[in-house]
Design brief:
The complex is a heterodimer of chains A (630) and B (95). With 630 residues, chain A is an alpha/beta fold. In chain A, 38% of the residues lie in helices and 14% in strands. In chain A, strand 21 and strand 22 form a beta hairpin. Chain B folds into 2 domains: 52 residues, no CATH class; 29 residues, no CATH class. Chain B is elongated. The chains are: A alpha/beta (630), B mainly beta (95).
């Protein structure tokens, strides 16, 4: 049983500190290492886990979802801007989306050189799943990307620190000068000091109660270990946040959370309700209410969700993906040649299973447990619980500075720098630049990696770290150990105590508030002003109790701080949904008291900022800049 | 599951989550340096086997710059390997 006094303090100094180890952080490390080596600077990357298998792509992935194909003349970066604007119902930082889109192809070409197998057709061209998506053999996707980042760091004399959970920023006024955290394996408290810091610690899962609450409590679509570390870090640094109301709810194969992209895009499958209707056809009239976005193509992800939810709410569930119909249809053209038909069916079966086995093995096991053979039987789909994932079809994250060469109103410093000086955000950590996915997050990491080195060369100063503050943070972060140790004897069961709450129960309390008041699964994704205000009231009490969480070991200490991180992103979410008095993304959440989209008043960003000095939140509207002529 | 895939001894077995997956199914990987084989066992006893490529280069060999031409201009919009890695003459811009 560790106690606070047992902890050694380890100091790590660098020029550039990269927090996180997923795609955006690996992109940052790969690019920054190149420029750091040229300029004699040191880069340190810190990962909560082992980088080979950390982050959202840990298990693998079956497609690259952002490839623009600019060089081949397939699409332009401007067309990608149009696509994202449409999908997010008009709310996107078009400068950031453009910037990522113009660099993402080079990231994908690097991935291919590093060893990722991208499917090619007979002419040697990439096989597209959809307009922007490429099919890959992606079981080792993360290992390959991590390998390049590690090789780059090694070559530049950098350092990778694994299994250290970063908690709080170190600030010198409005400037970020480092971070503190602790080892998840040893009794060590880490103090990182740097001239610039890049935050790439992912989005957040388990803020809302998941559908499975027994052994499958940890099963979610987005990785369960992503606890909102990025948002917590930037909020606590006093940086402005954006789109904290724009959560993402994917519709996926039910319970196993298997991907549907290949089924919808590659196999052209239909989704239907139990009474047989294709909800995209039956409820097409509803799209009129969400124009212009509802009437343009592709129909935004949240509206596709919404049309399915109409049937679910009407008791017409379950919803099904018609996999058998789709496969038969593709194979039909070979029906006169039994040999070719058999071969095609075998190929399609393999592709369908690889889609799961590359990235969502639980879904493969679930299909096997249900005796589902997709060519013979359809399969149930459902809306997942809400997630915070700015890299996908959600948009939450920090408000960051735009690219230098674009004429946008959002420039106050270096590209991807937050409103806190020397603090950059990428991937799920940066907001309003949706649809970057794995490849775009890596590209964004590269952009920020170069910019952070440029910042250090031009403005970098030795970090001024307040020693007393570090000691105070160490005491606070490790306090759950002493709380447990000093009170555990009061009752016979160490988990039942009036002096403390165990992290698992605290998580349940958080999830209950969010599920029931902020539009989770059991509220059918609906909320209102009254519900949100009540949720905030309960959240205030939860926040007061957050320093009553106890921990018996390092794992539980990590759970305590993951809970706190989730609680802060949850609060920003409640406040942002309350502030935006309309319903703009009905398939992500529905404000029952303001059920319509209100372009006159709310075609804008909702930003928020927590003031570290006063402890107050400020809510604000920000104008949307639309790329001229696009 | 990552541990199951990486274990060289094939020492770990795995089953589905017991609160929603019917019993009797399994997915067993055998992962090599360039591909992975899967044995999927169904609840009804039927078995399917699949083999997928995992990478095209030797483990550890990823060159961060990918052999693309690099440059020294910290002030340009071009990242280290650009524009070569874009397959273009210059990074697109609107200015």
């Amino acid at each position: 049983m560790p106690v606070t006094a047992d902890f050694e303090t380890v100091e790590v100094s660098s020029d550039l500190l990269i927090l996180g180890g997923g795609f955006s952080a690996c992109g940052a490390a790969t690019e920054a290492a190149y420029w750091a080596k040229k300029n004699g600077l040191k880069v340190v990357m810190v990962d909560k886990a082992a980088t080979d298998r950390s982050g959202a792509v840990a298990m693998g992935l079956s497609a690259i979802n952002q490839y623009v194909g600019i060089g081949a003349g397939d699409n332009t970066a401007e067309e990608y801007v149009q696509y994202v604007r449409q999908d997010l119902m008009g709310v996107s930082r078009e400068d950031l989306v453009y910037n990522i889109a113009r660099h993402v192809d080079s990231t994908v070409h690097l991935f291919e050189k590093w060893g990722l197998n991208i499917w090619k057709d007979e002419e040697g061209k990439y096989v597209h799943e959809g307009r922007w998506q490429l099919m890959i053999n992606g079981e080792s996707y993360k290992i390959i990307i991590a390998e390049a980042a590690k090789n780059a760091l090694n070559d530049a004399g950098g350092e990778l620190v694994e299994r250290v959970f970063v908690v709080e920023p170190l600030m010198d006024g409005n400037k970020c000068v480092g971070a503190v955290g602790f080892s998840t394996r040893e009794n060590k408290f880490y103090v990182f000091k740097a001239k610039a810091v890049i935050v790439g610690m992912g989005g957040a899962v388990h803020v809302f109660r998941p559908r499975s609450v027994g052994e499958g409590f940890g099963r979610s679509w987005y990785p369960p270990f992503n606890s909102g570390s990025s948002a917590y870090f930037t909020i606590r640094a006093g940086a402005e946040m954006t789109c904290q109301e724009v959560r993402f709810i994917p519709v996926r194969f039910k319970d196993g959370y298997g991907p549907v992209g290949a089924w919808f895009l590659l196999f052209k499958s239909r989704a239907v309700s139990a009474v047989g209707g294709d909800y995209m056809v039956e409820h097409a009239d509803e799209l009129e209410n969400w124009k212009p976005y509802g009437l343009a193509k592709p129909i935004p992800a949240n509206l596709r969700n919404y049309l399915g939810m109409i049937d679910t709410d009407a008791g017409k569930g379950p919803l099904y993906m018609e996999t058998d119909e789709a496969i038969q249809k593709i194979a039909e053209e070979y029906k006169d040649d039994p040999k070719a038909f058999k071969k095609k069916m075998k190929e399609l079966e393999s592709e369908a299973w690889e889609d799961f086995l590359d990235m969502t093995i639980s879904q493969a096991i679930l299909w096997a447990g249900l005796n589902v053979k997709p060519e013979e039987k359809h399969s149930e789909i459902a809306a997942c619980e809400p997630y915070f994932i700015g890299s996908h079809s959600g948009a939450s994250g920090a408000w960051v500075s735009g690219p230098e060469d674009l004429d946008t109103p959002y420039k106050w410093g270096y590209t991807n720098m937050t409103t806190a000086e020397a603090l950059f955000a990428v991937g799920d950590g940066s907001g309003a630049s949706s649809h970057k996915f794995s490849s775009g997050s890596h590209a964004e990491g590269r952009i920020a990696g170069k910019q952070a080195i440029k910042y250090i060369l031009e403005k970098g100063a030795e970090p001024n770290v307040d020693k007393a503050k570090v000691e105070e943070l160490k005491k606070n972060i490790l306090a759950p150990f002493d709380l447990f140790e000093n009170n555990k004897g009061k009752y016979t069961d160490p988990e039942v105590n009036t002096e403390y709450i165990m992290p698992r129960q605290f998580l349940h309390r958080l999830q209950k508030i969010m599920d029931e008041y902020a539009g989770g699964v059991t509220s059918a994704f609906k909320t209102s002003k009254a519900l949100l205000e009540r949720g905030l009231e309960l959240m205030g009490l939860l926040k007061e109790d957050s320093d009553k969480q106890a921990a018996r070991d390092l794992h539980e200490l990590m759970r305590v701080w993951e809970n706190n991180q989730r609680m802060w992103i949850a609060e920003s979410h409640l406040r942002s949904m309350l502030f935006r008095e309309e319903t703009r993304w009905p398939g992500y959440y529905f404000r029952a008291d303001t059920p319509k989209m209100d372009n006159d008043n709310w075609l804008c960003f909702v930003n928020c900022k927590w003031d570290p000095n006063s402890g107050e939140w400020e809510m604000m509207k920000r104008d949307i800049w639309t790329m001229p002529g696009v | 599951m990552c541990c199951v895939k990486l274990c060289p001894q094939q020492a770990m077995d795995v089953r589905g989550y017991s609160d929603f997956v019917p019993m009797g199914a399994s997915a067993t990987p055998l992962r090599g340096t360039e591909d992975i084989m899967w044995t999927v066992k169904f609840r009804d006893g039927s078995i399917k086997r699949f083999k997928f490529t995992t990478r095209t280069t030797p483990e550890g060999a990823a060159d961060p710059l990918g052999g693309f031409q690099t440059h020294d201009d910290i002030n340009s919009q071009a990242l280290a390997t650009e524009p070569a890695s874009l397959g273009m003459d210059a990074v697109p811009t609107r200015s």
